[in-house]
C-alpha cells in the first residue's frame, strides 16, 4: 500500500522591503526576519537499491533547491516593486553598492509566497509536488500558499 507523506523544511532570511502607495508604516523601507516553511508531498522511495530508499525527498536536496531559488536571492537584499517610483530609490541604492531586488509585484508576504511557489515547483523532482508554503513576517503574522487552494 502506498502512502503520501508530507515533508517540511524551514528556512530563515533577513530581507528589507517597502510597500509603495501603502497607507501605513510599511511604506517606509524596513526589514523582517522571515521564516519560510516549505512542505512537499510524495511517496517514500520503495526501491531498496536507491540511496534515498525510504525518503520522499532528501532534506538536503530540498534545502539546495530552496536556498538557490529563494534564500540566497532574498537574504540581505531589499525588495522593491519595479513598477513604482521606488525604482529610482532602488537605482540609487544599487549605485551605492546595496543588494537590491526588483520584482514585478508588491513585495507583501502574500505576493512573495506566490512567487516562491512558482520558483520551487519548477525545481522539484517529477514524483514530488509542492503542498504548501508558510512565510512568517513576524512572530504573529504570516501568509500561506496551499496547492489545494490553487488548482
UniProtKB/TrEMBL annotation:
Enzymatic reactions: 7,8-dihydroneopterin 3'-triphosphate + H2O = 6-carboxy-5,6,7,8-tetrahydropterin + triphosphate + acetaldehyde + 2 H(+)
EC category name: lyase
GO molecular function annotations of the record: 6-carboxytetrahydropterin synthase activity; metal ion binding
Keyword Zinc: yes
Pfam family name, one: PTPS
Binding positions for Zn(2+) per the UniProt entry: 17, 30, 32
Family: Belongs to the PTPS family. QueD subfamily.
Protein name, per record: 6-carboxy-5,6,7,8-tetrahydropterin synthase
